[in-house]
Write a structure and sequence with these properties.
about 70% helix; mainly alpha; 13 helices; about 325 residues
Length: about 325
C-alpha cells in the first residue's frame, strides 16, 4: 500500500488534477491578496465565488460566448466589490461584518436568480465548457503533455494573472501606491492620491478575480451550476493569502499545494478501499493547510493598515 501511495506522485493524471483543483484557488487568493494589500479584508469572497459561478454560467446558457461569460462573472464580482468597498472604505464600517453580509447577499442573489430563471428544473441545464488545450510541441511530451492536455484556456488565464499581478505590485507606480495605501495611507494622501479611490478600486479588481474563481467551476471544470458547489473554497483562499505572505508567487505555490493535497486524498481513498473512513481523507488538505498557516502566520508581514478605516485629514 505504501508503494501504491508513493506511485501516485509519479502519475501525470495526479498532477493534472492538482493544477485543475488549484485554478479557482489561484483566482481567489490573488483577489484576496489584492484587497488586503490595499488594507481591506474581503470576507465576501465565498459569496462572490457563488455569484461568479452562477452569473458566468447563466450568461453562456443565454447565448453569450464563453469569454463573454467570463466577462459577466468578473463584472458581477466587481459590483459586489464596489458594495463592499463603499461600505468599508468611505463609511468605515466593520470589514468583518460587511464581508459576511456580502457573502450572504451574493449567495442569496445567485440562488434566487437561479430559481427565477429555472423554477421547475430538477437537473441544472448544461453548457459546452472550455475545451482542453493542445499546446504544440509541449503537448506531445511524455509526462508534461498529459498534464497540459487536461487544462483549458481558463487555467492559462489564472497563471497569467499571477505574473501580471506580481509585475503590477512590484514594478509599477500603481502597485507602489496600492502597497502604500495598505501600509501607510497618510503618506499616500500626502502625495495627493486618493486613498478611497485606490482602496475601492483594489477591492473591485480583487472581487472580479474572486468571481473568476467561481466561473472556472461552471465554465471549465464542470458544465453546470449546482447549489453548494463552492464548498468553502473562498474561506480556504483567505487562509492561503496569509500563507502566501501577500505575495503572488507564494499564492500560486499555496494554491498548488492545497490542490495536490486534495487530489492526493481522493486517490488514497481508492487505495485503501474503504478501510479508512473517507472523512479522514477529506480532512487532510484542511489539516495541513491549518498547520502551514499556523507556522507561517507567526512571522507573516501583515499590511500595517489592514482592517483599519482611514478618513481624509485624519492623523
Amino acid at each position: 500500500m505504501l508503494w501504491a501511495a508513493l506511485d501516485i506522485l509519479t502519475q501525470a493524471n495526479f498532477w493534472a488534477a492538482t493544477v485543475r483543483i488549484a485554478t479557482p484557488l489561484i483566482f481567489g487568493v490573488l483577489g484576496a491578496l489584492l484587497c488586503e494589500r490595499a488594507g481591506v479584508l474581503n470576507l465576501g469572497i465565498e459569496g462572490i465565488f457563488v455569484v461568479g459561478a452562477m452569473s458566468g454560467w447563466l450568461a453562456v446558457y443565454l447565448g453569450l460566448p464563453l469569454w463573454g461569460g467570463v466577462a459577466v462573472a468578473a463584472l458581477a464580482g466587481a459590483v459586489f466589490g464596489l458594495l463592499h468597498g463603499v461600505l468599508t472604505v468611505p463609511l468605515g464600517l466593520s470589514q468583518h461584518v460587511t464581508g459576511i453580509g456580502v457573502t450572504l447577499l451574493a449567495t442569496s442573489v445567485a440562488y434566487f436568480g437561479y430559481r427565477v430563471a429555472f423554477p421547475n428544473v430538477a437537473t441544472p441545464p448544461r453548457i459546452e465548457p472550455f475545451p482542453p488545450l493542445h499546446v504544440p510541441v509541449l503537448g506531445d511530451l511524455p509526462f508534461i503533455g498529459p498534464i497540459l492536455g487536461q487544462q483549458t484556456a481558463f487555467t492559462v488565464l489564472a497563471f497569467l494573472c499571477v505574473g501580471l499581478l506580481a509585475f503590477v505590485l512590484a514594478r509599477t507606480p500603481l502597485g507602489l501606491a496600492l502597497r502604500a495605501v495598505g501600509d501607510n495611507p497618510e503618506a499616500v494622501e500626502a502625495q495627493g492620491l486618493s486613498v478611497v479611490a485606490l482602496r475601492i478600486g483594489a477591492v473591485m479588481a480583487g472581487s472580479a478575480l474572486m468571481a473568476l474563481g467561481g466561473a472556472f467551476l461552471t465554465l471549465s471544470a464542470f458544465n453546470a451550476f449546482y447549489f453548494g458547489m463552492i464548498n468553502g473554497r473562498g474561506w480556504v483562499c483567505i487562509a492561503l493569502t496569509v500563507f502566501a505572505s501577500w505575495r503572488p508567487g507564494k499564492a500560486l505555490l499555496g494554491a498548488l499545494l492545497f490542490g495536490a493535497l486534495d487530489a492526493y486524498q481522493l486517490r488514497l481513498q481508492t487505495i485503501t478501499g474503504g478501510a479508512v473512513p473517507s472523512q479522514i481523507f477529506l480532512m487532510l488538505p484542511y489539516i495541513f493547510s491549518i498547520a502551514a498557516l499556523v507556522l507561517v502566520a507567526r512571522r507573516a508581514d501583515y499590511p500595517r493598515a489592514l482592517m483599519k478605516p482611514y478618513f481624509k485629514g485624519q492623523r
